[in-house]
Specification:
By secondary structure, this protein is mostly helical. The protein is about 80% helix and about 0% strand. The protein is built from 11 helices and no strands.
């Protein structure tokens, strides 16, 4: 259904008839439509990420950001299933946590010095304080949780959010709507 919507979207009747006459043209356009569906909109992935972060933070507070980041590598339908099935999410969190810890332990055996997680988290912590200060007046009760959700973003994106007040406002509103939706699900 969505593929048909994409195919018919902005085309005139003549263009649609041309599509139907040429198997090659139709095939190419169907492939493009399917590809556009499977390449998730970054907004979708971002709001899923925030919902996932919220759910993961309940199960795994210590490595929440790392585990969420790992789970966000999964395909979108899988992430959606995890959000709707607490047991499956719990198993995925345990597995991701184990993989992360194994990765960290193996990291120590390399000759190339990598940025230690401590310095990175210290830098993110400082950014978190800045973000918190900027959003606490608008979201006094939720500021800490919203900051935690926003801190799952990449470091460079966090810098951009701090530098652009309008972007920060948009991201905080998105995080807040996810938090509110989560709250309504649990009541």
């Amino acid at each position: 259904m969505r593929v048909t919507d994409i195919l018919a979207g902005d085309r005139t009747n003549t263009e649609i008839i041309d599509l139907l006459k040429s198997d090659t043209l139709l095939e190419e356009n169907v492939e493009k439509a399917v590809a556009s569906l499977s390449e998730p909109d970054s907004e979708v992935r971002e709001s899923l990420g925030m919902a996932l972060f919220h759910s993961v933070s309940i199960l795994e507070s210590e490595l929440c950001a790392q585990v969420t980041g790992m789970l966000l590598e999964l395909p979108i339908p899988t992430i959606t299933q995890l959000l709707n099935n607490e047991e499956a999410l719990n198993e995925a969190v345990i597995k991701a946590r184990g993989e992360y810890l194994k990765y960290i332990q193996n990291e120590g055996h390399t000759d190339v010095p990598l940025a230690s997680p401590i310095t990175l988290s210290k830098e993110k912590e400082e950014l978190g304080e800045v973000i918190y200060e900027k959003i606490v007046s608008k979201y006094p009760q939720e500021a800490a949780k919203l900051t935690g959700m926003l801190l799952q973003m990449d470091y460079k994106d966090l810098l951009r959010v701090i530098a652009e007040p309008e972007l920060l406002k948009k991201k905080a509103e998105l995080a807040f709507s996810v938090l509110r939706a989560e709250g309504e699900q649990h009541h």
